[in-house]
Specification:
The structure holds two protein chains of two kinds. Chain A is mainly β. Chain A is built from no helices and eleven strands. The chains are: A mainly beta, B mainly beta.
């Protein structure tokens, strides 16, 4: 594969809708990260997987956010009952090593909640 | 708690001039520090890590534990260095990174 891919690239949702964001990491990469990047700010950590195990979800802002990576490859970030404050770019990154010290980022999904 | 501060939102220099992008951090243990770069219409990418002690594209960064800083330096800036730069910290909790809010560097001809 060419790198980390994310879909959709752009998503517009009405407030209250559920959305699902997909990340395809580089094949064979063990670690996978999700970040949220609001306008004018740096990426903020959401959650981290090592293979299929979600080792850290301390950055998920509320129980409306849920992430999974059931087979240790593709990951989905789901946001239920979206709110305007969820509008941001959601970045996915993957890394070959377990500690994730050399991350490759995807292009991001820009979510706009109206 | 982990915290990264990049005091300059915008930095502008002329081509050939030295450039220093500042990064200060707060962490109680032994952190790993990183610099990331995002060129226009490209994805975020790792530029360098302090543990590698390397020079990438002419950039270097030294971890100063006494001043809790990890400033990025280049002696002679080039126009192609114009980009957004993020400093990031990873603590002993492998996986979680804390990013600064970034500095937009513009190198003028």
């Amino acid at each position: 594969g060419a790198g980390v891919s994310q879909s959709p690239r752009y998503k517009v949702a009405k407030r209250g809708q559920d959305v699902a964001l997909r990340c395809d990491p580089i094949s064979g990469h063990v670690s996978l990260f999700w970040y949220q990047q609001a306008l004018g700010q740096g990426p903020e950590f959401l959650t981290y997987f090592q293979n299929e195990a979600q080792l850290d979800k301390s950055g998920l802002p509320s129980d409306r956010f849920f992430a999974e990576r059931p087979e240790g490859s593709v990951s989905t970030l789901k946001i239920q009952r979206t709110q305007q404050e969820d509008s941001a770019v959601y970045l996915c990154a993957s890394s070959l090593d377990q500690a994730g010290r050399w991350e490759f980022f995807g292009p991001g999904t820009r979510l706009t909640v109206l | 708690a982990q915290r990264v501060t990049q005091p300059e939102k915008l930095l502008s220099v002329f081509k050939g001039a030295p450039v220093e992008l500042k990064c200060n951090y707060s962490y109680s243990g032994s952190p790993e520090l990183f610099w990331y770069v995002q060129y226009s219409r490209q994805r975020l990418q790792l530029l360098l890590r302090h543990i590698s002690r390397e020079s990438i594209k002419g950039f270097t960064a030294d971890l100063n534990k006494g001043e809790t800083s990890f400033h990025l330096k280049k002696p002679f800036a080039q126009e192609e260095d114009s980009a957004m730069y993020y400093c990031a910290l990873r603590g002993t909790n492998a996986g979680k990174s804390t990013f600064g809010d970034g500095t937009t560097l513009t190198v003028k001809p």
